[in-house]
């Protein structure tokens, strides 16, 4: 679940396959009854992705909020993502930031990166965002696939940095090589935009 939220669509396929296993589903339910926050996070997250129709949207949110009350960091990040995207709840970036700040205060680097990019994207022309960009760069250099993907977008769109397609490609490629599908799609799009129109340079997808 966490890998999917970091951009690995392949992990989403694995999650769906796991959910088809009755033993796995029963195990999650048993752990939820015993108050296991990890199980609540996974069960609710699957509902948010549309993989689990055994619970209502309200139940999914209740599971996440219960897990948050147990100081479960992944659930804080998940609730932030739901409020950021408007999935299961009304879109509210302020609420998203609150949950990510909560996770950040407990030492979550992922939450720090997410809230940093949220600040950059909402104030992309702010000259005071230099420290935020440095945080993303340092995080990317330290192995954060999330920061790599975000930096690719920053350099492509000129968010708080000078637009630089070469650097955008570099960061997108780093994230894509590690399984981030959004970065892969952005990288492909950038290459498509500069590919010559002549027939010999065209790439055709195989028939399905």
Strand content: under 5%
Which percent range fits the helix content? Answer: 55-70%
Total number of helices: 12
The largest β sheet comes out as:
none
CATH superfamily of the largest domain: Tetratricopeptide repeat domain
Under CATH at level 1, the class of the largest domain stands as Mainly Alpha
Q: Tell me the span between the first and last alpha carbons.
A: 28 Å
Q: Taking all residues together, what is the mean pLDDT?
A: 90
**H/E order of the elements?**
HHHHHHHHHHHH
Shape: globular
Number of strands: 0
Class based on secondary structure composition and strand pairing: mainly alpha
**CATH architecture classification name of the largest domain:** Alpha Horseshoe
Task: Walk me through what this model shows.
The protein has two domains: 1-107, Tetratricopeptide repeat domain (Serine Threonine Protein Phosphatase 5, Tetratricopeptide repeat), CATH 1.25.40; 108-196. Helices cover 69% and strands 0% of the residues. The protein contains twelve helices and no strands. The chain is mainly alpha-helical and 208 residues long. The protein has helices at 2-5, 9-19, 22-33, 37-48, 57-69, 73-85, 93-105, 109-122, 130-141, 145-157, 165-177, 181-194. Helix 3 crosses helix 4 (37-48), helix 5 (57-69) packs across helix 6 (73-85) and helix 8 packs parallel to helix 10. It is globular and about 50 Å long.
Provide keyphrases for this structure:
208 residues; mainly alpha; Serine Threonine Protein Phosphatase 5, Tetratricopeptide repeat; globular
């Amino acid at each position: 679940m966490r890998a999917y939220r970091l951009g690995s669509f392949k992990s989403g396929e694995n999650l769906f396959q796991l959910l088809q296993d009755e033993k796995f589903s029963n195990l999650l339910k048993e752990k939820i009854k015993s108050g296991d926050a990890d199980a609540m996070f996974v069960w609710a997250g699957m509902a948010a992705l549309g993989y689990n129709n055994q619970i209502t949207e309200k139940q999914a949110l209740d599971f996440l909020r219960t897990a948050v009350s147990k100081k479960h960091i992944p659930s804080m990040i998940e609730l932030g993502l739901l409020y950021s995207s408007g999935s299961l709840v009304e879109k509210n970036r302020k609420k998203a930031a609150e949950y990510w700040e909560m996770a950040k205060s407990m030492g979550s680097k992922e939450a720090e990166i997410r809230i940093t990019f949220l600040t950059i994207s909402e104030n992309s022309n702010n000259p005071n965002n230099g420290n935020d960009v440095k945080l993303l760069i340092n995080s990317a250099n330290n192995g954060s696939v999330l920061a790599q993907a975000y930096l690719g977008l920053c350099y492509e769109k000129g968010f708080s940095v000078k637009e630089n397609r070469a650097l955008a490609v570099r960061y997108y490629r780093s994230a894509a090589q590690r399984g981030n599908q959004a970065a892969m799609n952005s990288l492909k799009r950038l290459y498509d935009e500069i590919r010559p129109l002549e027939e010999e340079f065209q790439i055709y997808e195989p028939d399905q």
